[in-house]
Amino acid sequence: MTHRTKHLGLVVAAVLIASCSATQPTTAVFSHIEVVEVVDGDTIRAKVAGTTETIRLVGVDTPETKHPTKGVQCFGPQATEFLATMLPAGTTLRIERDQEARDAFGRLLLYLFRPVNGGELFVNFELVRRGYGKPLHIEPNSRYRDVFVAGAFEAQRNQRGLWKWCK
After folding, report:
1. What secondary structure, in 3-state letters, does 144-167 show?
2. What 8-state DSSP symbol labels residue 64?
3. Active site residues per annotation
4. CB under 8 Å to 8, separation ≥6 — which residues?
5. pLDDT at 68
6. In sequence order, what E strands does the chain have?
7. Which of 27-36, 50-59, 66-75 has the highest mean pLDDT?
8. What is the pTM for the complete model shown?
9. What pairs with residue 38 in β-bridges?
10. Residue 95 contacts residue 16 (beta carbons within 8 Å)
């Protein structure tokens, strides 16, 4: 059994997302979200428990397309297009969170899983494995660290995506 199949087979009934605010944290329990739009290669907007939220995919960093100072980076538009193809508006996803629920910008930090042929596609991992992004580990959110590193080695070894085009 590969790392991919071992981790893709995980099933979680519900995910606890802590909504952090400056004054008082609140907690909501849900396990699925609906994609509203893809913002860039590692960020989407989705309906979460009746509210539209910005979601940052945990464990992956794709090249920038909208950064105010970095501009458009090599393979950024391709990463955004790939994610948009994988997650068209209306797609329902199963989600998992790690230790920290939100980043410094208030975005939800989530692992995304798309239903495919009776199974699931681990969206965050697929971005790395296909060469659209690189692993990004910010403690304490590191549940799938080894999976992402293995995916990046595979992409680099096979000269996929940014590993081929961005020297």
Report:
1. CHHHHHHHHHHHHHCCCCHHHHCC
2. P
3. 56, 64, 107
4. 113, 119, 120, 121, 122
5. 74
6. 15-19, 26-30, 32-40, 43-48, 51-57, 60-61, 92-96, 108-116, 119-122, 134-135
7. 50-59
8. 0.80
9. 44
10. no
Give the alpha-carbon dihedral of 132, 100, 145, 143, to 10 degrees.
-130
Answer yes or no: are the C-beta atoms of 125 and 147 closer than 8 Å.
Answer: yes
Spell out the CATH class of 3-165: mainly beta
Confidence of residue 73 (pLDDT cuts 50, 70, 90): confident
User: In which residue are the tokens 């629920």 written?
Assistant: 101
Half-sphere exposure of 71 (CA within 13 A, CB side): 2
| 64: amino acid identity, one letter | E
The predicted-structure confidence for 14-29, as pLDDT tens digits, reads as follows 222 233 333 233 344 5
Per the structure block, which two tokens stand in for 166? Answer: 């961005």
Q: Exposed (0-12), middle (13-18) or buried (19+): which is 70, by Cβ within 10 Å?
A: exposed
75-94: pLDDT as tens digits: 889 999 999 999 999 999 99
Q: Report residue 28 as tokens.
A: 């909501």
Amino acid at 13: A
How much is the pLDDT for 28? 46
pLDDT band for 71, please (50, 70, 90 cuts). confident
Q: Return the closest-CA partner of residue 128 out of 105, 109, 144, 104.
A: 144
